[in-house]
């Protein structure tokens, strides 16, 4: 379902909107861009961590910490595109759980793993399609729809597998989900993530399809008038999100070597936290994939560092929560400061993009 | 646009199904083929030899990883284990996830490995999900003791089992027999009719009752309360009405025993029918205090943590390796022998009564 040129072309015109909005904030705003700050913070955590905790910078630890982020990172790619288009998918962790339950049940029933994996990914796409159709055809808000399917898909997962745990998957596949690429400290799923991240970055920031997402997120009406097939674009995004979540479910199952209906419980919040921390505006229209990747890494490495220093789970949760709130407040604050500085300007500045 | 997307969607699905069919026909890796093709379990690399006389090393670093932190039962176990570590001049701590999900323990295992612990003691949420990282930890020389809930046996060195089924079954009969003077009709209130552990215990109870010293005790019925409070309550009522000469009831399930105690405490049978079984102190406290129940059993979580701590220290000091037949010296608990598959059994169930119940909060 590649974006076709016809929809992409007119998008180019409207796409000028959000970057213009960003540029309005001037060099001060540009310097203080949140995603740049997250990147800097990440570097600080890394340097501070290496200096304070001997185990932190070891190849073993980093490789494990990266592997541990695998599913969150994968799902965050699709989630970034959705949130940029001012939608959200809260059902991703449930799709992951359903996919894990299906992998377990089918494997237990004697199916070949080579059949199970594509089938489960297709089912994940179907889950995404259901979300997408409810949002685009019935015009329902995605927050409400996906809260519903969050419960629905998790319920189905329990119907499929109950509270059983299926294990003993073939070793050549479980190794694929855990092992590093020979000669490097990079686990296979991370390599896959890097590849997909490059593709996503190109699509989001360098194609008409990507520009149309920003346009939809900034002002859906305007995007519609500019000829963007808004509903179809959104449908594609939801299908993508379901597909990626199901695939992440396969990776999760093989990585832990255990298929369960409760796998990935609550993971959707970690994904959305990473996306917001990465500077994507929850109201849509603004954000960069680089910021999101920095956000995912920041949450993961910070948690790893706190654990290495025996900081309790409660405090870890408080730290991540505060960081998230700061990440939502800061860009607004910067925008306000930016406006104050421009006030003496005789030219009335246009209304900021919907945010 | 929907005609287009519908067509393209159906094409995709068709192509998908087609390829699935091809893969399915062409065979692939299934559970059966994988297990038949799987190489034989690798022989454990040169089993280290144990030196039973090796001293326990000083300054050992142990970490308890419970199913979940802030769970009262696990807190008792881990605290006792941490106190035990002080006895042999080691240091121990408890860390863990706030939810008991299958995967949440995994990052903790990695962290503990990086922190350079000598041993990790784990109550596994999922026997297999924790296996990979435990193996990695073992490859770096970390000893693994599972307690309370076992990890796959090839991912740990020792499993501390609370009690074995035979001991639980036989000791329940002994306990009741003491209280009714080995004479009279008795009944069992179990959980569900197909609960594996319950049925194993009941088999051992019947076997024990076959011994000559219990010739005057007669098992009249096994009732099933389905681990449902209300059903257990009604079954108790039914038993007492159907067997007016009933002297005692054994309920080897925490739901059953507390429901039965609630019925008896409010009925004319209080003080006439003896109730015992397996329960937790917090559930049973009021019935022990009001005299409905004199004694009941479970294991002692403090001893469980204590024994686990000593097992970890003995492994890390080379006193034992986890092989069958080795002897573990466990401080005030005395000695325990390593059984099949690296299992060490804590011992016979612990009996709670008026005198000791207030020392426990779980």
TrEMBL record, chain A:
Keywords on this record? Cell inner membrane, Cell membrane, Membrane, Transmembrane, Transmembrane helix, Transport
Mind listing the GO molecular function terms for this protein? transmembrane transporter activity
Where does the source fall among the domains of life? Answer: Bacteria
Q: Which InterPro entries match?
A: ABC_transp_permease
The cellular location(s) given in this protein's UniProt record come to:
Cell membrane
Topology relative to the lipid bilayer, per the entry, is:
Multi-pass membrane protein
The UniProt entry's coiled-coil ranges are none
Q: GO CC: one term?
A: plasma membrane
Query: By its UniProt entry, which PANTHER family does this protein fall under?
Result: ABC TRANSPORTER PERMEASE PROTEIN YPHD-RELATED-RELATED, AUTOINDUCER 2 IMPORT SYSTEM PERMEASE PROTEIN LSRD
Name this polypeptide is given = Autoinducer 2 import system permease protein LsrD
Name its species: Streptosporangium becharense
UniProtKB/TrEMBL annotation, chain B:
Signal peptide region: 1-24
What are the residue boundaries of the Periplasmic binding protein domain, all occurrences included?
63-319
Look up and give the organism this protein is from.
Streptosporangium becharense
NCBIfam families with a match to the protein in the record? RhaS (TIGR02637)
Q: Which GO terms describe its biological process?
A: rhamnose transmembrane transport
**Protein name per its UniProtKB record:** Rhamnose transport system substrate-binding protein
Tell me a GO cellular component.
outer membrane-bounded periplasmic space
The GO terms this record gives for MF are: carbohydrate binding
Kindly indicate whether the keyword Metal-binding belongs to this entry: no
UniProt keyword terms in alphabetical order: Signal
Give the matching CDD domains: PBP1_ABC_rhamnose
Subcellular compartments: Cell envelope
Chain spans, region Disordered: 33-52
Q: Which domain of life is it from?
A: Bacteria
């Amino acid at each position: 379902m590649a974006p076709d040129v016809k929809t992409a072309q007119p998008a180019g015109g409207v796409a000028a909107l959000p970057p213009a909005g960003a540029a309005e904030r001037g060099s001060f705003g540009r310097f203080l861009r949140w995603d740049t700050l997250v990147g800097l913070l990440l570097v600080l955590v890394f340097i501070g961590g290496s200096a304070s905790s001997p185990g932190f910078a070891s190849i073993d630890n980093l490789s494990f910490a990266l592997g541990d982020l695998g599913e969150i990172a994968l799902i965050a790619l699709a989630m970034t595109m959705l949130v940029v288009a001012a939608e959200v998918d809260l059902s991703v962790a449930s799709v992951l759980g359903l996919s894990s339950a299906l992998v377990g049940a089918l494997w237990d029933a004697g199916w070949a793993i080579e059949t199970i994996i594509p089938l489960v990914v297709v089912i994940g796409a179907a889950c995404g399609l259901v979300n997408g159709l409810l949002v685009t055809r019935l015009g329902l808000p995605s927050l409400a729809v996906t809260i519903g399917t969050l419960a629905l898909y998790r319920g189905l997962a329990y119907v499929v597998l109950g509270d059983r745990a299926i294990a003993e998957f073939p070793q050549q596949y479980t190794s694929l989900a855990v092992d590093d690429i020979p000669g490097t400290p990079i686990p296979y799923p991370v390599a896959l993530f890097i590849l997909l991240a490059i593709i996503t970055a190109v699509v989001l920031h360098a194609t008409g399809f990507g520009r149309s997402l920003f346009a939809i997120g900034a002002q859906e009406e305007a995007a519609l008038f500019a000829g963007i097939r808004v509903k179809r674009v959104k449908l594609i995004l939801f299908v993508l999100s379901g597909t990626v979540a199901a695939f992440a479910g396969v990776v999760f199952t093989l990585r832990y070597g255990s298929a369960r209906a409760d796998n990935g419980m609550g993971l959707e919040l970690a994904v959305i936290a990473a996306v917001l921390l990465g500077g994507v505006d929850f109201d849509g229209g603004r954000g960069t994939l680089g910021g999101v990747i920095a956000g995912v890494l920041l949450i993961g490495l910070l948690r790893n560092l706190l654990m290495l220093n025996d900081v309790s789970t409660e405090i870890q949760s408080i730290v991540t929560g505060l960081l998230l709130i700061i990440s939502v407040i800061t860009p607004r604050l910067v925008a306000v400061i930016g406006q104050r500085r421009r006030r003496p300007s005789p030219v009335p500045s246009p209304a900021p993009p919907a945010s | 646009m929907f005609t287009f997307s519908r067509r393209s969607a159906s094409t995709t699905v068709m192509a998908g199904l087609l390829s699935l069919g091809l893969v399915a026909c062409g065979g692939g890796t299934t559970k059966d083929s994988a297990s038949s093709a799987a190489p034989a379990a690798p022989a454990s690399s040169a089993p280290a030899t144990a030196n039973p006389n090796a001293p326990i090393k000083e300054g050992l670093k142990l970490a308890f990883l419970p199913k979940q932190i802030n769970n009262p039962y696990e807190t008792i176990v881990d605290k006792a284990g941490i106190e035990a570590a002080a006895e042999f001049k080691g240091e121990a701590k408890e860390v863990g996830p706030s939810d008991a999900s299958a995967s949440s323990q995994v990052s903790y295992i990695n962290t503990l490995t990086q922190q350079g612990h000598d041993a990790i003691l784990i109550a596994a949420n999922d026997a297999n999900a924790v296996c990979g990282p435990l193996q990695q930890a073992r490859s770096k020389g970390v000893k693994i003791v599972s307690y309370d809930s076992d990890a796959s046996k090839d991912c740990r060195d020792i499993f501390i089992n609370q009690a074995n089924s035979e001991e639980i079954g036989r000791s329940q009969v002994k306990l009741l027999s003491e209280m009714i003077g080995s004479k009279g009709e008795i009944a069992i209130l179990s959980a569900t009719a197909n609960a594996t552990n319950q049925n194993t215990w009941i088999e051992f109870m019947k076997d024990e009752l076959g011994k000559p010293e219990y010739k005057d005790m007669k098992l009249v019925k096994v009732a099933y309360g389905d681990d449902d409070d209300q059903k257990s309550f009604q079954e108790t009522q039914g038993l007492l009405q159907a067997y007016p000469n009933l002297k005692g009831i054994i309920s080897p399930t925490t739901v059953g025993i507390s429901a039965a105690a609630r019925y008896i405490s409010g009925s004319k049978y209080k003080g006439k029918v003896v109730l015992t079984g397996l329960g937790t102190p917090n559930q049973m406290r009021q019935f022990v205090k009001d005299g409905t129940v004199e004694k009941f059993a479970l294991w002692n979580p403090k001893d469980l943590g204590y024994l686990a701590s000593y097992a970890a220290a003995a492994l890390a000091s080379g006193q034992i390796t986890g092989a069958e037949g080795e002897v573990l010296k466990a401080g005030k608990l005395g000695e325990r022998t390593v059984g099949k598959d690296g299992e060490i059994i804590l011992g016979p169930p612990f009996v709670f009564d008026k005198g000791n119940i207030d020392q426990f909060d779980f």
